[in-house]
Specification:
By secondary structure, this protein is of the alpha/beta class. The protein is built from 5 helices and 7 strands. The termini are far apart.
């Protein structure tokens, strides 16, 4: 069961692929795409990550930050980013605390799910089941719908 729309997103801090600590509270004022995925450099996860990278500049224009989260470590994330030219944060949740806080823990693997967090830190939308193909576009469209009421000038 996912967290509900309208509640405050649980705060967290985690290290990204470059060893930098990313804190959710420091991203207030921006939209946050928080997506959970099972494992670096696997077919579905690669497709999803490449989709976000292809649209990264569009997300940035909307004042949105993309954060990918898995249980992989920083080294694995760095290799994944380098191999596919990913230029957004991948967070190492080695102990699974963020995954658990966001109800993304599956029986064997991290569930593929995404939260859109608004600039006030509240959950604005949840994708409980994600198809990696076209997901980034779907998230961008929902972000624009929520931000502009469906009308982007």
């Amino acid at each position: 069961m996912a967290l509900e729309v309208g509640i405050m997103a649980p705060l967290f801090s985690a290290v990204n692929q470059d060893g930098d600590t990313i804190r959710l509270e420091n991203l207030r004022g921006k939209w946050v795409v928080l997506y959970f995925y099972p494992k670096d450099d696997t077919p579905g996860c690669t497709m999803e990550a490449k989709g976000f990278e292809q649209l990264r500049e569009e997300f940035e224009k909307e004042d949105a930050v993309i954060l990918g989260v898995s249980r992989d470590n920083e080294k694995s994330h760095k290799e994944f980013c380098t191999k596919y030219g990913l230029n957004f944060h991948l967070l190492a949740d080695k102990d699974g605390k963020i995954i658990e806080a966001y109800k993304a823990k599956g029986r064997l693997f991290t569930k593929r799910m995404t939260y859109l967090i608004d600039p006030e830190g509240k959950i604005a939308f949840v994708w409980k089941k994600v198809n990696p193909a076209g997901h980034a576009k779907e998230v961008l469209e929902k972000l624009r719908e929520l931000k502009y009421g469906g009308n982007k000038e």
